[in-house]
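Record format v2
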Amino acid sequence: MFNRRISVALCMMLFGSAAAAAQNGVLIKSETMHAKPASSSAIVGSLAKGSTVNVIAKQSGWIQISSGKAQGWVRILSVRTSAAYTGSAASDIAGVAQMATGKRQPGQIVATAGVRGLSEEDLKAAHFSEAGIKELAGYKLSAASAQSFARQGKLVKQSVAYFPDPNANNE
Amino acid sequence: MSGDKVMTMKMILIAVLASVTAVPAANAFDLNDLNNVIKQLPANVVNQNTTNTTDKAGSNNAGDTKIDPATVLLGALKQNSVDDEVQIGRQLAGNLLGASPLVKDARLQHYVNEVGRWVALQSERPDLPWQFGVIESNDINAFSAPGGYVFITKGLYRKLNNESELAGVLGHEIAHVVRKHQLKIMQQSQFIGLGAQALGREVNGQQTIQNLIGSGAEIMSRKLDKNAEFEADRMGLVLAARAGYDAYGLPAVLEEIGHVAPGDSSVALLFKTHPAPDVRFSMLSEAVGDRLDNLPPGKELANRFYHIK
């Protein structure tokens, strides 16, 4: 009995540290793995849709993953990463409790006093704020200001066409 | 309807109209079912089932009263009547701010206008009077209104890690405005028939629109067609990429939102009005494919991202 308790505790500790150390993910489409974060680099393997992977690194559109002995880079949108749970435990617990009772109240924070939500009821009851709309207008910027801001960040415009709807041919 | 986690933030004009009369159940009618909406409009706003809306619409109202929602909406849909579109958006934005004011942080508000205006400049409508704001709410959500009004909640802003993620979120909202998604709902409805008959009438100014829309921003809690959401995701990603940002900011935010416990009240409205984040991520994955393989790496700009105190 005592041993079992210890092992349970150990398991939890291991679990916890593992989850904190590495991010896991799942391939949402079958992918070829590349040696480098570029489609022109050598192909070093392939993984099937649904494969569980460990995330090693990310770099501009590519993600380095490993699965068993296989390791390589795939496009970042091919991997859905699992939660590196960042949400507060309190709100998670509150949410679970709400789900359990079936009395979840949209937009209303139950776990924290003084925190404001934005529920349908709030929206319905809203009245026009002349002061608010004027305040908002006060922050409006010219195109020139935005261009200057972009230059400061060394943002370089790119030519990218909109993507077609991937489901367009299915209708 | 409760089960489908469909779409968005955004205000739909129809819903606006419905909110005038305080329709009790938020989801009591389908967005596209304008018959219902019209039935619930007071007689002095629109006279149901009549082809002669113009005369009857004005008959019961004191003062200025030629309120014809269809005409206003159609006007806003036309390329050459940006003014109506902006006035409609202004009213809705003002109503939203009545529920959730701007966060009192001038540097923050200035910053989101810098990022948002730059991203909007990459769109087909760079010259709209774009205005961006962070509103005082811990919910995780974002909103847009016709004519260039874009809002992000403080709760969502706090989830962001860098400027490219903010650009992606704002890009999604900008796309709704550019595509007139809210206004176009009207086109699919029977309202268009009424509007066609009312075309040519003069619609004057803000007072008319105020009367038309009234108070309430309940429409913000309506969902758009889910394809409009997927389109806004695709366009938002592209707009951020055009602006020189890392293109993957928006999907990164979707992943982050997907990690919030579904029962968390902060995402209740978002999840009710949008497809599930993992579905949106998958749709983006499908749409992008290898199309960005040759795109030069963009910037995340985590270092100049403004953190809320």
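Residues 2-81 of chain A form a domain with the SH3 type barrels. fold (CATH 2.30.30.40).
Chain A touches chain B through 78 residues (CB under 8 Å).
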